[in-house]
Amino acid sequence: MKSPTYLALAALLLCACGPNVQSPPTDRYDTSKMDLKPTPAKLSSERHTGPLASGASLSMTAVLKPLDTSPVKEVQLDTSHKIIEIAPGVKFAAWTFGDQVPGPTVRARVGDKIRFSMTNRSDEPVPGVKLTAAPMMHSMDFHAAMVSPQDKYRSVAPGQTITFEFTLNYPGVFMYHCGTPMILEHIASGMYGAVIVEPREGYPTKVDREYVVIQSEFYAKLDPDNRKVDGVPLYVLDTDRLRAAQPTHTVFNGVHNGMVRQPLPAKPGERIRVFVLNVGPSKTSSFHIVGTIFDRVWFEGNPDNQFRGMQTVLLGSSNSAIVEFMIPEEGSYIMVDHHFANASQGAIGLISTTAKTEEKDLEHHNMEATDTPTDPAAVQGKQAFESKCLACHSVGQGRKLGPDIAGVTKRRADNWLTKWLKSPEKMLETDVDAKTMLKEANNIPMPNQNLSDAEIKQYLSYFHWIDMQPAGTATAHGAK
Ligand SMILES: [Cu+2]
Prior knowledge:
The chain is an alpha+beta fold and 480 residues long. It has helices at 4-16, 149-152, 183-188, 239-243, 258-261, 340-343, 360-363, 376-388, 408-411, 414-422, 424-430, 432-440, 453-468; strands at 42-44, 53-54, 58-59, 72-77, 79-87, 90-97, 105-109, 113-119, 141-142, 161-167, 172-177, 192-198, 209-218, 220-222, 228-229, 232-237, 249-252, 262-265, 271-280, 285-290, 294-299, 306-310, 312-315, 320-326, 332-337, 348-352. A hairpin with a 2-residue loop joins strand 15 and strand 16. Helix 10 packs across helix 11, helix 10 packs across helix 13 and helix 11 (424-430) crosses helix 12. Bound molecules: copper (II) ion. The site of copper (II) ion has 6 residues, from loops.
C-alpha cells in the first residue's frame, strides 16, 4: 500500500489541513452583501421629449462600446411604435425600446446601479403611415434585476413615465423585454434588448474586439388593410403564426442576413468576444461559427460557467453566452444558428477579415463559385436578381420566403412568368396556379417589384440560363 501515489495523497491531505487555507474563500455571491432592497418605482405624467434613448452605457449597434466606469448608470429607454425593415423590402410595424430593434445594449459591472426611466411614447405619430397600432400599455422587465415585478415591471399608459433603480448583483448577459400581456406579442413586435454585466473585477481574458449578437424571430404577414410605407406594402404581426411558433424570419440583430451585407470586421490572429443572446420568443438557437472553435464559452455570460473548446452553444429563449475565439487566417467566418431551418430564415452573419464578402460563402462555404452566363441579357438579369430578389428567393438552395427559382422555367411557361413579374397581385386574383403557390408560401404574397418589360426579359433569360446548367450547380450570390 505504501506506493508513491499513497504518499502523495497523504501529503495532499496534510497540506489541505495546513494553516494557510483556514480563512474561508470570499463568496462572490454572498447574498448578505447584495442589494436586495431597491426603492419603490415612481410613476409620473411628465414625458421625455427628444431622443428615445440616452445614457453613456448604451451601445446602439453590434459594436460594443467599452465599459463606462461610473458606478451609477442613467439609462433612458422610451417605447415607440415604428416601421422597421426586417429584410430588404419587408417593412414591419414594430414596437420598440429606444426606437430600434433590438433595443440598445446596456453595459455595466457588478455592483453598479442602474437608474432607469422610460416614457411610454406609443402615442407619438409614426413617420410614413398613419398609426400602425393604437397607443397601448408597455412595461420593462430587466432579467438583470432582482426586484418586485408588480412594482418595477408594471405596465405604464401612453404618456406616462416610470423610473426605478436596481443594483447589478450577478454578472451575465441578460435579456430585457416588455412584460405587458400578451407578452408574446410585445416581444415578437420588437420589444427586447440586452444588459451586459461584467464581473466586478472584469473578464479574465483580453480580447481585441467585442460584438453583440441578438437572435430573434419575426412573424410577419402583409397588412390586411393593405397599408403601404414609401410605396411598399406594410407587414404586420401574424398572430396565428406567432402562436404556432412558425416564424417567417429568424434573424441576428433585427435584420434578415443583416451582418452578411455588413460583416463585422476582424483581423487574422485576433481574439474576438461575442455576447450572444437568444431572445426567441419561442425558438432555441444552436449558435455556431463556421471556421473556428470557441476557446471559451461562458454560459449566460458568467465566467464561472465556463466551457472550453466548444463548437456550438445551445441557447433556449432568453439564454445567453459569451463566446471567445481566435480568427486563425484571412476569411469570412460565418455565424449561424446551426438549426439550419432557422439559418435559412436569416440567422446568418459574418465576421470577416475583408470589408467585402460574398454570399456564396454562406450555405456552401466549401463549394466552388459557379459560372456566370455569357448572354448580356442573362448577365443583367443575374445582377438584378442578386440585388433585388435574393432576400426572398434562392437559386438551388431551397425555399426562402418565396420558392426556389431553380427549375422555374420548367414549371412555368414564359408568358405566365412575364405576367407574374408584371403584376403578381393581378395573377393572385385570377390565376389558379398563382393561388396555389400563395398557399404554399403561407399566404405571404410577393410584393410587386415594379419591373419594366425589358427587365422582365432579362430575368427570364437568366432563369433559362439557370435551368440549362447541370442540376444543382447554379447558385446566386449576394449583393455587394
Ligand atoms: Cu410592450
